[in-house]
# Entry
Amino acid sequence: MILQSMIVSSIELLSLLRPHRKERKF
# Structure
């Protein structure tokens, strides 16, 4: 589904924007 891919891409963008000290994989 396109919606799912958009959600995944948005999550990746957020992770890149926010300097995450702890790496969590969904």
